[in-house]
Amino acid sequence: MTKLFCILAFSLTTLTALALEDQPTLMTTRGKLLVDQNFSQPLKPFDGKSNGFASGFSGWRWNAVPRGGKWAVENGVFTGRETAEVKHPATASYGFLYKNVVIQCEVRMNNVPLAGRKYRSLSVRTVDAKDYVCSIHMNEGGFRITKDDNDHAGPDKSVPLGAAKVPLKLDEWHTVVFEVLGNEMVGTVDGQSLTGSHDLIDREKHSLMFVMGVEGSVRHLKVWEAAPNPDWAKNKTKVQAAAVPAKP
Questions:
Q1: Which 3-state string (H, E, C) describes 162-182?
Q2: Rounded to a whole number, what is the largest CA-CA distance in the chain?
Q3: Each residue of 226-245: pLDDT tens digit?
Q4: Residue 42 phi/psi, 5° resolution?
Q5: Is the pTM of this model over 0.85?
Q6: Per-residue pLDDT tens digits for 130-165
Q7: According to DSSP H, which parts of the chain are helical?
Q8: What pairing do the DSSP bridges indicate for beta strands 121-127 and 101-109?
Q9: Whole-angstrom Cα distance, residue 92 to residue 108?
Q10: Which domains does the chain show, CATH number per domain?
Q11: d(Cα 195, Cα 233) in Å, to the nearest integer?
C-alpha cells in the first residue's frame, strides 16, 4: 500500500503574482494549446453520442435533473450548484482526446447555505472511457491528489496519492495547475504541490470534469499538451525534501 502513497509538498511563493499562463510547471512544459475557455459566451452543447463514461463527445456537457446539478455562465465564470433534494454534486465535463496535459484554471468554493450537507468540496478530474482516472480534490481544510479506479481495479475508490493541509477560503479564487505525464501527476493549488504516480494515470483520456459539492465556480480554463520538463528530477527532489504528511 505504501507504493500507492506519495505525500509531497512544495511551495512557490511567487505563484499568485503571476498571470495564469505564466504559472510555473514542475514536471512538464507546455506544448500545443488544446482548450482555451474564458466563459465569456454561453456554452455550446456537446457534439457526439453520450453513453456514460464511454462516450465520444466534444465540448461541454453537464448533469441535470433527476441526478441533480444546475450550471450557469455569467461574467466569465462557470458555476455549478447541486440540488438540495438530490444531494448529488454538480458535474460538468469538457470532451476532447488527450493523454499528457497541463490543465490550468482558477476555482472557487462559494459560500452558500449547505442545505443539509456536511462539507463543501470541489475537484478537477481526468476521465477515460471507463471512469475517473486521477484528480485534485479540494475542501476547506486542504487538498489531495487521488488515483480514481472505480471500474478499473476493484473496490478501491479515490485512493490518495498525496494530501496537504492548507486553508482554502470560501468565496476566494484559488489557482490550480494540474500536470499529467505518463504514469505521474503533479497537482498544485496556490503554489503548494503534491505529486504521485500510478499505472492507471498513463491512459488515453477523453474528457476533464469539474465536480462541485454544494456550489463551486471555475474560470480561465486552459489546457496544453504536455512534454517532459528537463528540470523535473531536480524539482522532484525539492518537492520530496519539503514533504509534510497531512490529511485535509
A1: EEECCCCCCCCCEEEEEEEEC
A2: 50
A3: 999 999 999 998 877 776 55
A4: -55, 140
A5: yes
A6: 788 999 999 999 999 998 876 665 555 778 888 898
A7: 232-241
A8: unpaired
A9: 15
A10: 2-241 (2.60.120.560)
A11: 12
